[in-house]
Amino acid sequence: VQLVESGGGLVQAGGSLRLSCAASGSTFSIDAMGWYRQAPGKQRELVASISSSTGNTAYAGSAKGRFTISRDSAKNTMYLEMNSLKAEDTAVYYCNAAVGIATMKRRDYWGQGTQVTVSS
Q: Cα–Cα distance between 100 and 5 in angstroms, integer?
C-alpha cells in the first residue's frame, strides 16, 4: 500500500484546509484509514479514523466538531476537512492505512506527511 498526502499549507487561525490522501497498491486489504499529526517536540497522535467496511468514524477530542474525515472509495482517496483551525493544529499531518495481518495484529502504512501551519 502506498499513500500520498496533499493539501497542506499555511492558513490563518479560523481558516480551513482540506487534506487528501491517495492510496494505491493493495487497497482492498485496508481495514481502516486515519489521519495522524505530529507537532514539534510532541508524539504523533491520532486525529481521526474511518473504517473501510462500515465507514464509521472516530475523532480525537481536539478534532470533534471542527474536522471531518471522509473517503471516496471509487478514487481510493481519503480526506480531512479542517475548519476553525487554531495555532495548536500546526503539525505535520500523516495519512495512515491499517492492514490486518493476523488476529489482533496489523501492519501500518504511512504517507510522507504534509505540513499544516496555522498562523495566529
A: 22
Task: Give the position of cell 506527511.
Answer: 113
Spatial separation of the C-alpha atoms in residues 88 and 50, rounded to whole Å: 23
Beta-bridge partner residues of 11: 118
- Of 76, 67, 25, the C-alpha closest to 45 is 67
pLDDT over threshold 90, residue 90:
yes
Q: How far apart are alpha carbons 49 and 34 in whole angstroms?
A: 4
Model pLDDT for residues 19-45, shown as the tens digit of each residue: 999 999 999 999 999 999 999 999 999
Nine cell digits for residue 95: 495519512
The whole-angstrom separation of Cα 71 and Cα 31 is 13
The pLDDT of residue 98 is above 90: yes
Tell me the average pLDDT across 65-88.
97
Could you give the CA distance from residue 42 to residue 90 in angstroms, rounded to a whole number?
Answer: 11
Nearest to 99 by CA among 53, 39, 60, 64: 53
53: left (phi over 0), alpha (psi -120 to 50) or beta: alpha
